[in-house]
């Protein structure tokens, strides 16, 4: 349930994108800390009056600029942004997991309350049956207060969507 909720949540997706962006920024910032290497290759062939010549040239250029603090500071800032984005993603994922857990616990509590209410209604019906049998064995008259209590408990149990067992797949 937690994984499905996190996959569907837009805050999680946004935090994941921010983390990817921070990682790319860190890669770009770190690239300036290393030497650059350029190379080229050239070949030519010429032919004139029966004489042919081939010319080949290879060039290699290596450069490294000593940093006085600018690129290194930029790299450190990018790394800090990356760590911040990573912590933000973790916070969002933890919040979503806590919300799912709270909703699940509330659903289970409501299911238990429903079970207790159904047992209570059953017990009240049994008490009414016993009272009617004991005090009014041959009569169709029922005490009004007992009948009212029974009807009230039945009305509470008929509340729509109180059957939480069928709603458990929603959460």
What does this entry look like structurally?
By secondary structure, the chain is of the alpha+beta class. Helix content is 64%, strand content 15%. A hairpin with a 2-residue loop joins strand 1 and strand 2. The C terminus is likely disordered.
Looking at this protein, list some descriptive labels:
two-stranded antiparallel sheet; alpha+beta; 64% helix; 171 residues; rod-shaped
Question: Would you kindly provide a brief summary of this structure?
Answer:
The protein is α+β, with helices and mostly antiparallel strands and 171 residues long.
Order of helices and strands: HHEEHH
The main pleated sheet reads as:
2 strands, antiparallel
Outline, from the CA principal axes?
rod-shaped
Q: In order across it, which strands form the biggest sheet?
A: 1-2
* Helix proportion range: 55-70%
Oligomer: single chain
Cα distance, first to last residue?
7 Å
Q: In terms of structural class, how would the helical and strand content be classed?
A: alpha+beta
What gyration radius follows from the Cα positions, in whole Å?
39 Å
What fraction strand?
15-25%
Number of helices: 4
Low-confidence stretches: 165-171
| Average of the residue pLDDT scores | 76
Q: How many DSSP-defined strands?
A: 2
